[in-house]
Amino acid sequence: MVGQINHKLSLRSAMNQRERKAFLIGELQSGRYGSSYEVLNVLEGHFSSLEAVPFGLRNQPTRICEDLSDGRITREQSVAKLIEFLWEVPDDV
User: Fold this and answer.
1) What span, in angstroms and rounded, lies between the C-alpha atoms of 42 and 40?
2) Cβ neighbour number for residue 75 with a 10 Å cutoff
3) What is the pLDDT of residues 33-61, one digit of tens each?
4) Range of 58's domain?
5) Does 26 map to a domain?
6) Which residue among 64, 66, 78, 91 has its CA within the 20 to 30 Å range from the CA of 34?
């Protein structure tokens, strides 16, 4: 499965900010990922490519993973929090 997803991701390298956000939100809502760790393992490059992330939010995906590992949130909550993070990132840069 990871190989198929990585191939799909490589075809999306020329996305603009709005397309990248829509792609990431669609991937997260697909139910393919059980936790923020799985998401970032496969999609980290796309998260890193987001532009104009508001100050203080750049490290939010890492904080979400830390909250998951510390038992403060569940696996499902970690994915939901990544979606919330994406909604905070501007569509246009």
Assistant:
1) 5
2) 14
3) 999 989 989 998 888 899 999 998 999 99
4) 2-88
5) yes
6) 91
